[in-house]
Design goal:
The chain is an alpha+beta fold and about 220 residues long. Helices cover about 35% and strands about 30% of the residues. The N and C termini lie far apart (about 45 Å).
Length: about 220
């Protein structure tokens, strides 16, 4: 099975990375999470509700919605924070990418082994810029906010498509599709992957960075 993939290219200041990536991944996970399953027998179940809250960004003119799950938020914050630290470090070229991958566990050839089969991947490719005055920073706040608004609308459109989703399994195999470790929410199984070790620039990055700088001068 080939995994569906979506890629976003973004350019911003280093201090905006955590909030920008969080807004996208929290939005995706909000759509890719369910309430806790409560089984009544092996195949009959009911689904709990998911709480949600608004999050206001500090370095971007933007507000997004996320699940009210402290442990899920902690997981996302930890993974994005590590990526952000490496991306902004002196050893980094200022370019990198981070992916949110949804997968399903399937039994392998041996009974004690399982395979992780990805079915949807969301990737954010980032390039950092350095701004030297507050006027440019304010324009950047607005521009990044506008870009994120477009991405969130697009995510919502994708989520409303009748694309493949893993079938809900019986109770014994629930953790082959969902992450059941969270006490207040049940997301599809997911993992993060990131890298900051690519070439310092590429053709896409150069074009995006040039266009972004041009908008600041308008």
């Amino acid at each position: 099975m080939n995994a569906r993939s979506q890629t976003f290219d973004l350019t911003m200041e280093g201090r905006q990375v955590d909030e920008a990536v969080s807004s996208i991944f929290h939005t995706i996970l909000f759509h890719r999470s369910l309430g806790k399953f409560m089984y009544k027998g092996e195949a009959r179940y009911s689904v709990g509700t998911i709480g949600y809250m608004d999050v206001d960004c500090d370095f971007i003119d933007f507000t997004y919605v996320c699940c009210t799950s402290p442990r899920l938020d902690e997981t996302i914050k930890r993974e994005i924070g590590e990526f952000s630290r490496q991306l902004r470090s002196n050893e980094s070229s200022g370019t990198g990418q981070i992916s949110l991958e949804f997968f399903q566990r399937r039994k392998g050839r041996w009974a004690f082994l399982s395979e992780s089969i990805p079915w949807e991947v969301w990737t954010i490719r980032l390039e950092l810029i350095n701004l030297t005055n507050e006027d440019d920073r304010q324009i950047c706040r607005e521009r990044v906010g506008d870009m994120l608004s477009d991405k969130i609308v697009y995510i919502s459109e994708v989520m409303n498509r009748h694309d493949y989703l893993p079938k809900t399994p019986n109770q014994m195999e629930l953790d082959s599709v969902f992450d059941t470790s969270y006490p207040d929410v049940q997301p599809y199984l997911f993992q993060f992957k990131f890298t900051t070790t690519g070439p310092s620039t590429n053709s896409v990055g150069k074009t995006v960075k040039k266009l972004f700088k041009e908008t600041l001068s308008l």
